[in-house]
Amino acid sequence: MDLFDKIANKVSPLGQFAADAHHYYTFPKLEGELAPRMIFRGKEVLNWSLNNYLGLGNHPDVRKADAEAASQYGCAYPMGARMMSGNTDYHEELEKQLAEFEQKEDAILLNFGYQGILSAIDALVDRRDVIVYDAESHACIIDGVRLHQGKRFVYAHNDIENLEKQLERATKMANEQGGAILVITEGVFGMSGNQGKLKEVVALKSKFEFRLMVDDAHGFGTLGPNGEGAGVEQGIQADIDVYFSTFAKSMASIGAFIAGDNVIINYLRYSMRSQIFAKSLPMTFVKGAIKRLEMLRTQPEHKANLWKIVNALQGGLKAEGFNIGSTTSCVTPVILKGNVAEATHLTHDLRENYNIFCSIVVYPVVPKDVIMLRLIPTASHTLADVEETIKAFQDIKGKLLQGDYKAETLAAFN
Q1: pLDDT value, residue 86
Q2: Burial 317-339 (b: 16+ CB within 10 A, else e)
Q3: 112 phi and psi, to 5 degrees?
Q4: Which of 103, 104, 225, 285 has the fewest Cβ atoms nearer than 10 Å?
Q5: Is the pLDDT higher at 125 or at 409?
Q6: Residue 14 reports pLDDT greater than 70
């Protein structure tokens, strides 16, 4: 059989809608300045779909720092991988600042978040070790776990009793194989908005021997007194052994980092294949990240503005009877009942008639009868934006309940 013939006959859960959804429901193009209002298909929409939590993506000080770095260094410097020829004082300075901010001994700078945590998992465990991870972990964690050649156990989302059962199994297997245990969870789960039960997970260290890795992509910059993340927010940062976050959310940029004890970070520095065999993070992003981190640390008004919008949006939605799940973060899911076709008609109405753009999440990410509209508040939004959105959501919820979006096929957008 020819490989391409085989692929041509494959239909993925999301790819089956490609012909009807491309450039509208999937791969949409938002144009213009990064802001709450952007251009979608030629008209302005109120946008709740950018992970630009602190509004730094288009901040003039950030734009200035990025431009100056690009002017001075271009996009190529430094050339080569960090280990070979791509290291600079600025890379090391950023690592030092990130470690101090996260109350850890050391940090390693990563090119990208997805490949970074995947590669870190691969480096930390061998075939004798056992991984135990939360069922709702991000795809980067799942793919890292898939690389693992040893045993892994999954526990029900945020279910500490189930985690304890899996740790009992893992402990037995690790002892038999002469291995160790790595538990992986998230500081904030990106779909539901739940914080990981880090305090309860850490408490199990008194009963079981394991190390804890936390992916805090959505907690970094948004939680904790100064944006240090979910570990500081929950008072257990010292018990997180491998702290990971990305620059793609609150820092509104490219790159990521891992913070932890000196011995572990130095081991990862010489063991992570995604860093050893990949080009160093360009100086434009490094110097830009230093500026963003400085603003995050010294300008608390960005986080304060963010939470003013979060509280208004989530409080307003709940007051109007919307189900926003059990979010304890900025991530704001609005959960409705309906099928995929209804979801597209609802979304089309929301975008075309109310000029509101937010992400639509359907099966297989959520159950078949669920429509999730996922809103990401930012410090750049206004209370007027919140009021406009809640009013529009009231209308579309009423239409959904009346059956106005009933259909067998996806809503056309051409």
Answers
A1: 94
A2: beeeebebeebbbbbbbbbbebb
A3: -140, 155
A4: 225
A5: 125
A6: no
What is the reported pTM? 0.95
Rounded distance between C-alpha atoms, residue 81 and residue 368, angstroms: 44
Write down the domain spans for the chain: 3-53+301-402, 60-298
Inter-residue contact 259 to 98 (CB < 8 Å)? yes
Question: At 13, is the pLDDT very low, low, confident or very high (cuts 50, 70, 90)?
Answer: low
DSSP sequence for 314-344: HHHHHHTT-B-TT--SS-EEEEEE--HHHHH
Q: Judge residue 120's burial from the number of C-beta atoms within 10 Å of its C-beta, 0-12 exposed, 13-18 middle, 19 or more buried.
A: buried
Contacts 24+ apart (CB under 8 A), 25-34: 25/344, 25/347, 25/360, 25/410, 25/413, 28/357, 30/357, 33/58, 34/58, 34/252
Pairing relation of β-strands 211-215 and 181-186? parallel
E-assigned strands of 253-317? 256-260
Tokens of 394: 């009231």
The set of residues, in sequence order, having a beta carbon less than 8 Å from that of 169 and lying 6+ positions away, is 153
Of 278, 291, 281, the closest CA to residue 91 belongs to 281
The H or E element spanning position 107 is strand 106-110
Residue type, 214: V
**Which tokens in the block code for residue 353?**
């008639």
Helices (H), 180-257: 198-203, 230-233
In sequence order, the 6+-apart residues with CB closer than 8 A to the CB of 86 are 78, 79, 80, 279, 280
Question: What is the predicted pLDDT for the residue at 5?
Answer: 86
Q: How far apart are CA 290 and CA 292, in angstroms?
A: 6
Do the strands 356-357 and 43-47 form a parallel or antiparallel pair, or are they unpaired?
A: parallel
Looking at the DSSP bridge assignments, the partners of residue 246 are 256
Domain 60-298 has CATH 3.40.640.10: yes
